[in-house]
Structures are given as structure tokens and as C-alpha cells.
Amino acid sequence: MRDLSHVIDALISGVVVIDAAGTVCEMNTEACRILEASAESARRQPVEATLGPLLAKLVRGVLASGRGHVENEVRIERRYSTAPLLAEIAVSPFHEPSGQGDGAVLEIRDRSVHQQLRDAAFERERMHSFGRIAAGIAHEVKNPLGGIRGAAEIVAKRSEDPRFVERAKLVIRETDRIAGLLDDFMVLGREEALRLREVNLHRVLDDVIDMNDLDPLSDGVRIERLYDPSIPELHADRDRLAQVFHNLVRNALQAMAGCQGDRLGIRTRVDFDHPLSRGDGPHVPAVSIEVSDAGPGIADDLRDHITDPFFTTRESGTGLGLSIAQHWVTAHGGRLVLENGSDGGTCARVTLPLRTSRRDS
Ligand SMILES: Nc1ncnc2c1ncn2[C@@H]1O[C@H](COP(=O)(O)OP(=O)(O)OP(=O)(O)O)[C@@H](O)[C@H]1O
Ligand SMILES: [Mg+2]
Predict the structure, then answer these.
(1) How far away, in angstroms, is 257 Cα from ligand 2 center?
(2) Structural contact between residues 48 and 56, judged by C-beta atoms closer than 8 angstroms
(3) Domain 5-110 has CATH 3.40.50.2000
């Protein structure tokens, strides 16, 4: 019979061929990646040794019953990676022409990327609906706010009583603060087009670092720039990107205030095969920018909420920094993810498509 191993290796699904005794006969490249095992180590071993208890049980069940089995979402615990992998699996029995009994073929399709993209699409939709309502309310509040500020200015100018002047000035300061907050808030509901042009990413990052350098928060912080010089100019909105990185760098500096660690790392790199595209479309070349700090990191139970508008754990925070950053990254067709960094702090990673300039919404 023709050797079809190169054809099986070309499949995007993981394939494991098992004989009637439950011994692994063959395993393709994708199955090796998913199961984190080599074909050599798996061959001639019982399924339990390579597939783990859950998949092995399903395979044994099919071998015993002779009936196929399909599951849409199975969490596969992995040998080395800490996070389980979400997969779609099918186990089909087959008859050995040699008459040695029925074997089974296990097909595993990695759904984790698909799941991530679905989550991102859901998040985008959620933010859009939220943003539209928010912008409507903000707009309504801004109009009377202008009137209140105007009236307070008149009182401040005309009043002879210093106590009234002082209070009117307080009203002016507070209305300005609320107006600033509303401006930030309204960003989330805006569908406005990005002003795309060629942007030198490293220059944007340098400008953000320089701007923050003047702030006392940066005192004693070592900023390490690990730039990939091969990154070409991006087709992007310079000001929006600056706002994204400014918010991330400020969060990093604030997280480090009062902490032992003093290193803030900014790393860029090209990722030629990144799953940024929608649905099951092709992977696209992307660039990642990581802002890593040596702060306390983000507690697991807060992680799902930190990009929610108004979620903050800081006394003087508005909780809009990350939602605005996510808004503009998404508008560029990119993604923003916050993870635990390797040194215990936080790593905020922005991934942007290298060439596309369309809004991915
Ligand atoms: N680098 C980080 N390390 C630890 N926690 C972080 C980090 N970045 C964000 N967070 C958490 O996420 C929350 C939300 O951040 P976000 O930037 O949206 O708002 P904020 O910083 O609290 O206020 P502001 O609107 O002024 O940015 C923070 O209050 C903090 O709890
Ligand atoms: Mg912030």
C-alpha cells in the first residue's frame, strides 16, 4: 500500500491511528503538537500513555462498541503547557483489512484559536453596545455641564465675596474634571475613522517614554527597550497608538510605585504567523508590542474585569485607561491581552496586523 504519512502530516487536524488492542500505530505532526509528544515515543505504546485519561477512555469505548464518537468541546490537559487546549474530537472505528480486528482513528481539531477569536468578537460587540449608550449619556450630560461652568465663571468674576469666588472656582474645576472624564468616555462610543498613515512604531514608543519620563512616577524606574529593528513602518493612526501605549506605560508605572522591582520593559517583534484574522481565515503577519512591569501583577479574579469601563482598583483611577486602549487597538484590527509576566509583574501585549488598515469591527 502507498505510504500516506506525508498526506496525513499535511492535515490541519491531529490524527492518531490506534489498533484493536489500543496501541498507538501512527500519529501525525499536528497530533504531536497538540499532545506534546513525539510520534516515536507514542508508537507501540498503549493509548493511555500518550492521549491522557479522557481521550484514552473515549478511544477504548469506541474500540469496545465499534461505534464512532464525536465531541465538540473537549478540554485536553497537556503535558507541559499549563493551560488546557480546547479541541473538537472524533473517534471512528475502522476495519483492518488484514482481519486483525477493528482499530480506531482519533481526529483532534484545535479550537483554542477559534475560541479566542470568538471571545474577541463578543468583546468587540459588547464594547460597541456599551459605547453607544455611554456616548449618548455623555453627550446629554455635557450640554448642561457647559451651562453650569458658564454660570460659575460669571459668579467667580462678579462676586465681591471671596467665599463665593472660591466656591465658584471649585465648581469650575469640578466641571472641567467631569468634562474630561466624559471626553474619555465618549471615545468608547465613537465610530470615527482612524487617521491612517505610515507610522514608525519605535518613534511612537520613544515619544511615550519621553513624555512619561518627566513624571515623578518614573523616578528610579529602569526602562529597557528591546526593539526589533526589522519592523517596517505601520499603516496606523499615530495619535491613537500613542494613547494606547501611554495608558499601558502609565499603568505599568503606577503598578510599580511602592514595589521593589524597578524594570519596565518594552519589547517589539514581528510575528509572521499570527492568528489575528477573523473566523477560520488565514493567519496574518503581525507585530507585537509588550509592556512588562515588575509590579504585583493582576489577581486572577480581577483579570476578566480590568478592561471593563470604570473598573479600577486605584483610588484616583477612572478605570477608563484599558478600555480606551482596547477600543483603539481593536479599531486597528489588533488585540490587547494582559497576562502575568515572567518575573511576576504584568505583561500587556498589543498585537497589530502588519499591513491591514481596515477597521476590524
Ligand atoms: N500593569 C498593571 N499591573 C497591575 N494591575 C493593573 C495593571 N494595569 C491595569 N491594572 C489593573 O486594571 C485596573 C484598570 O486599569 P485602567 O487603566 O483601565 O484604569 P486605572 O488605571 O485604574 O484608571 P485610569 O482611567 O486612570 O487609567 C487598574 O485599576 C488595576 O487594578
Ligand atoms: Mg490606567
Answers:
(1) 13
(2) yes
(3) no
CATH class for the region spanning 115-187: mainly alpha
Q: Which amino acid is at 127?
A: M
Provide the whole-model pTM.
0.65
- Domain boundary assignment for the chain: 5-110, 115-187, 197-353
The minimum-distance atom of ligand 1 relative to the CA of 324 is: 18
How far, in Å, from the CA of 204 to the mean position of ligand 1?
21
Task: Assess whether the C-beta atom of 212 lies below 6 angstroms from ligand 1.
Answer: no
Q: For a substitution probing ligand 1, which of 188, 212, 245, 251 has the most ligand atoms within 8 Å of its CB?
A: 251
351 forms beta bridges with: 288, 335
Q: Which residues pair with 26 in a beta bridge?
A: 17
| pLDDT tens track, the chain, 361 positions | 567 778 888 888 999 999 999 999 999 999 998 999 999 999 999 999 989 899 999 999 999 999 999 999 898 888 777 778 889 999 999 987 766 668 999 999 988 777 777 777 787 777 777 777 877 888 888 888 999 999 999 999 999 999 999 999 999 999 998 888 888 777 777 666 788 999 999 999 999 999 898 889 999 999 999 999 999 999 999 989 999 999 999 999 999 998 888 999 999 999 876 655 544 455 678 999 999 999 999 998 898 899 988 899 998 888 989 999 998 998 898 989 999 887 789 999 999 988 644 444 3
What is the three-class DSSP state of 135? helix
3-class SS at 339?
strand
> Cell match 478592561: residue?
307
Pocket test for ligand 1, best of 263, 322, 343, 346 (most atoms within 8 A of CB): 322
Residue whose CA is closest, atom 12 of ligand 1?
Answer: 306
How is residue 187 written as a grid cell? 471615545
Q: Residue 45: CB within 6 Å of ligand 1?
A: no
- Cα 331 from Cα 193, distance rounded (Å): 9
Q: Please tell me the class of the 197-353 domain.
A: alpha beta
Residue type, 107: E
- Output the CA 319–ligand 2 centroid distance in Å: 6
